[in-house]
Amino acid sequence: MKKVLVIAGPTASGKTALSVKLAHYFDGEIISGDSTQVYKELEIGTAKITENEKEDIPHYGLDLIHYYENYSVKDFQTMARQSIDKINAKQKLPIIAGGTGFYLKACLYDYEFTNEVEEDNQFDELSNEDIYEKLKQIDPKSLGKIHLNNRKRLIRALNIGLKGQTKSEREEAQEHKPIYDIFLIVTDIEKKIIDERIEQRLNNMFEHGLMDEVIKYFSDPISWNYQSFQAIGYKEWKDYFLNNVSLDEVKERVLISTRQYAKRQLTWFRHQFSAYWYKPNEENEKLLLEDIKQWLNKETT
How many CA atoms lie within 13 A of 68 on its CB side? Predict the structure, then answer.
């Protein structure tokens, strides 16, 4: 199994700086595990790493598509696994750094995604309840994970079931085991410090032109349907464009959303992964480096 070092954790917890430091130390190259930094045009609101911050370490997974295009977890899985192979072929250490938990798990574990099924217009005249009942007949297990109001997922699960193996059968066939030898670090920082860092970073975003970036790409209401606009830091501007809230209220909404997201990220990592929880300080850094060395020197099957 190929070795992959993973640095996860909540937003503003120092993942980027730690990944660059470890890349220098262990001769690695970095794959972004962030779902928003794939957009070429969006720099400020995504907190994208700058060229100076990269310190000449090669990075993958950045600036892949335009802000008006869509990007799926399957797209990430393909990109990340191909990047791991490229880095491994150079005899360097692949390092994934990011906080989008499901993206990380999709890459590192044996998740398989079929090609997206087109939504047939034959269901247009059916209510959610009608679709629910049809799905109940062919794939009742899937209903435990899909809410009645989530029409898109109901239709997708029904389409999959009507065209062969059901969604539940496909998921049960996957063991959800890691396909790499993973050393997963979660940056573990006190909530108070994270909250302070989030606020400081948001202030820096506004000072460096977040408002100009948002106006440039999202002032047209058509753009409010773009996947990129649904990201924290952008979606909160809709009411501002509609003259319903002030700039200060936008800023407060982004702050609250980001703090809530950081909390959800920590909860997710606690429940989904077995990880090395790392509290940054000089003593713990020495221990971390030694533990990574031991992991790298340990043979895998």
Answer: 7
Q: Are 68 and 228 in contact (CB under 8 A)?
A: yes
Residue 270 burial by Cβ neighbours in a 10 Å radius (0-12, 13-18, 19+): exposed
Phi-psi map region of 219: left, alpha, beta (phi>0 left; psi -120 to 50 alpha)? alpha
pLDDT tens-digit readout, 117-150: 445 556 777 788 888 888 888 888 888 778 777 7
> E strands along 52-106, which residues?
59-60, 93-97
Q: Could you tell me which of 275, 288, 249, 285 has the C-alpha nearest to residue 99?
A: 275
Written as six digits, the tokens of 45 are 């609101």
- For 235-281, the three-class secondary structure string (H helix, E strand, C coil) is HHHHHHHCCCCCHHHHHHHHHHHHHHHHHHHHHHHHHHCCCEEECCC
Element (H, E) at 3: strand 3-8
Average pLDDT over the chain, rounded to an integer:
91
Three-class SS state of 196: helix
CA distance 144 to 246: 41
Q: At 295, which amino acid appears?
A: W
Residue 24, pLDDT above cutoff 90: yes
Span 236-286, pLDDT tens digits: 999 999 999 999 999 999 999 999 999 999 998 988 888 999 999 999 999
Give dist(CA 64, CA 30) in Å, integer.
15
Straight-line distance from the first to the last Cα atom of the chain, in angstroms, rounded to the nearest whole number = 6
- Kindly give the pairing relationship between strand 93-97 and strand 59-60: unpaired
